[in-house]
Design goal:
By secondary structure, the protein is of the alpha/beta class. The protein has one domain: P-loop containing nucleotide triphosphate hydrolases (Rossmann fold), CATH 3.40.50.300. Helices cover about 40% and strands about 25% of the residues. It is built from eight helices and ten strands. It has a six-stranded mixed sheet with strand order 6-7-8-3-9-10, sandwiched between helices. A four-stranded antiparallel sheet has the order 2-1-4-5, with helices on one face. Helix 3 crosses helix 4. The longest helix is centred in the C-terminal third of the chain and has 16 residues. Bound molecules: adenosine-5'-triphosphate and magnesium ion (MG). Magnesium ion binds next to helix 1.
């Protein structure tokens, strides 16, 4: 029997004295699904991704990803978990400014024990697929926002993680670059990679995902298909 890839149960997370950033959130994602998370600013979308990535812990509830109880991992185990299971594209790029583009992209593979040559070969392939091969030796500080985001996408894909988490992957991109990222995500999903994508970009949600989950004030409201939501927004 297939197990869910993500099983988030009754998760709450509150920062300081504020209202809960997530409130009794439950979400099941099956292997191979592509899910868009939509919701207003401050509704808890990044909080949700951080919990899935083991970068933060819930106050109550459980987070299980690919059979791992992520909410119970210590720091070192969480880092190992991220290297083996997760590719993450952050809302803000999180590139290392002291490494050139190719080294930034190859880094996760090298941390996971892949030989340098193999890591760089795969990094070059991804940079090519994203149309930024010519910037391999440049440092991130010299690149445009859109180029940096594509480097971040390449880095997240390097270890072929079973789960790709993306936080506004097209937020900083012009339309053409956004379409490159969108096409790549769609191809990866067609090859079986599971995607969870936080976005305000309905075109991205429509073209890359088969299901939409909406969060309002830290509560997961529903999980309709992207088509329904975009039809509603167009009205
Ligand atoms: N480290 C933190 N410390 C205190 N409050 C936080 C922290 N991180 C998030 N919050 C609060 O939790 C709530 C949810 O934040 P979150 O970043 O998950 O929202 P979001 O849906 O990703 O918003 P956006 O679309 O603007 O990125 C917000 O009210 C935010 O201010
Ligand atoms: Mg956010």
């Amino acid at each position: 029997m297939t197990e869910p890839l993500i099983d988030l149960r009754d998760v709450s997370r509150r920062y300081d004295d504020g209202p809960p950033a997530l409130h009794d959130a439950s979400l099941t994602v099956w292997p191979g699904e592509a899910v868009a998370i939509l919701g207003p600013s401050g509704s808890g979308k990044s909080t949700l991704l951080n919990l899935l990535a083991g970068l933060d812990r819930p106050d109550t509830g459980t987070v299980t990803v690919d059979g791992v109880r992520v909410d119970r991992l210590g720091e070192a185990a969480a880092a190992r978990y991220r290297r083996s299971k997760i590719g993450m594209i952050f809302q803000f790029f999180n590139l290392l400014d002291d490494l050139n583009v190719a080294d930034n992209v190859a880094l996760p593979a090298q941390l996971a024990g892949t030989a340098r040559g193999e890591a760089h070969r795969r990094a070059a392939e991804l940079l090519e697929a994203l149309g930024i091969a010519r910037h391999g030796r440049a440092y991130p500080g010299r690149l445009s926002g859109g180029e940096r985001q594509r480097v971040a996408v390449a880095r997240a894909l390097l270890n072929r993680p079973p789960l790709l988490l993306a936080d506004e992957p097209t937020g900083a991109l012009d339309t053409a670059s956004g379409q490159d990222v969108s096409r790549l995500l769609r191809e990866l999903n067609a090859e079986g990679q599971t995607l969870v994508v936080v976005t305000h970009d309905l075109a991205l949600a429509r073209s890359c995902t088969d299901r939409t989950v909406r969060i309002v004030d830290g509560r997961i409201v529903d999980g309709r298909i992207a088509e329904d939501v975009s039809a509603e927004m167009a009205r």
